[in-house]
TrEMBL record:
Domain PRISE-like Rossmann-fold: start-end pairs: 68-358
Record protein name field: NAD-dependent epimerase/dehydratase family protein
PANTHER family for the chain: 3-OXO-DELTA(4,5)-STEROID 5-BETA-REDUCTASE (PTHR32487)
CDD domains referenced in this protein's UniProt entry, alphabetically: 5beta-POR_like_SDR_a
């Protein structure tokens, strides 16, 4: 039996943008993989589904009673109306899973995926305080605001100290990847938006801020993040550490926007400095998308399963430069790189192949 076959992973959120890529990565490496979710979206072939209500401790304990997981990966969160509820619900999800797995005495490592809101603050107080200087570095620590990421970390640290497993925390920038039904998916959102522009003959208007248009930024391909998660969970240098994780290149939206427009054959509108959020301009998009889906025989006629206007608006509307530092991972031995334009184009090709956008 291979060394990888001895590893049994539980992915919390295996049908999401990160969890899907991670499941594919671990399966290809020979792991046994289970995916814990509410069962709303299709999982990855070869990943054994486990259905439970993550907010219900008894439901999680019952669903995982016969599971001897050696590694658990938290790649999901539940969006609530305010940060207090985010803290209560998302902290409980981490606690419920780790309490259940802790009873098995088989758990070796737990990995938690959070993000750059660790440095920027939560959505409702997004960058409203003193944001650390860029590029963001892990040593900059926590902001003096309520943040459900901090609650998740504390529940992780608490369980690790109690049960004796190691941990890692992974902080990607905006993640690019394939995951219909995911609520935080800029790549798919921009593909849908560009398709709407092409079908209607409207220009491809940048929805964000001048700071994002002109400033440097970076992003994280879900496939690279999956490799980072596997690396940290199986190497001594990744144990009990928090890491930023990004593709390794930087870009300006004013350049990438033209590349995306060229790919879809639409006109990139000149940017005049005005923020034009997508959410406010997409009132008829659901109806228009159903017509496009019918015309091109697409698999998904419901636009809300492909596009997340609010999340893309939040990322592209930031009033400051946002870029991360990968030195800590590099010095620890993770040297992978991914071109961000290629990450977008790979995603678009996958969406075409799956008949989710027109070919």
């Amino acid at each position: 039996m291979s060394k990888e076959a001895d590893k049994q992973a539980l992915i919390v959120g295996a049908s999401g943008i990160v969890g899907r890529a991670l499941a594919q990565r671990l399966l290809a490496s020979g792991w046994r993989v289970h995916g814990l979710s509410r069962g709303r979206n299709a999982g990855v072939t070869g990943c054994t589904p486990i259905v439970a209500d993550l907010t219900d401790a008894a439901s999680v304990a019952h669903a995982t009673a016969d599971l001897a997981a050696t590694h658990v990966f938290f790649t999901a969160w539940s969006r609530r109306a305010n940060e207090q509820d985010n803290i209560r619900v998302n902290g409980a999800m981490v606690r419920n899973v780790l309490d259940a797995l802790g009873r098995t005495k088989t758990l070796q490592h737990a990995a938690l995926v959070t993000g750059l809101k660790h440095y920027l603050g939560p959505f409702e107080a997004y960058a409203s305080g003193a944001v650390p200087d860029t590029p963001f570095r892990e040593a900059q620590g926590r902001q003096p605001v309520e943040n459900f990421y901090y609650e998740q970390e504390d529940r992780l640290f608490e369980a690790a100290a109690r049960d004796g497993f190691t941990w890692s925390v992974h902080r990607p920038h905006t993640v690019i990847g394939f995951a219909p039904g995911n609520a935080m998916n800029m790549g798919q959102t921009l593909a849908v938006y560009a398709t709407l522009c092409k079908q209607s003959g409207q220009p491809f208007v940048f929805p964000g801020s001048a700071a994002q248009w002109h400033g440097l930024t970076d992003m994280t391909d879900a496939r690279l993040l999956a490799r980072h998660l596997e690396w940290a969970s199986t190497n001594a240098a990744g144990r009990n550490e928090a890491f930023n994780v990004a593709n390794g290149d930087v870009f300006r939206w004013k350049t990438l926007w033209t590349l995306l427009a060229d790919y879809f054959g639409v006109e990139a509108a000149p940017f005049d400095g005005t923020v034009r959020p997508l959410e406010g301009r997409m009132q008829n998009a659901a109806h228009e998308w159903r017509e496009i889906a019918a015309k091109h025989d697409l698999k998904e006629p419901e636009i809300e399963r492909l596009a997340s206007w609010w999340h893309t608006d939040a990322d592209l509307g930031r009033p400051m430069e946002v870029v991360t530092d990968m030195t800590k991972s590099r010095k620890a031995g993770f040297l992978d790189y991914q071109s961000t334009p290629d990450a977008f184009f790979d995603l678009f090709e996958a969406l075409k192949a799956q008949r989710l956008i027109p070919a």
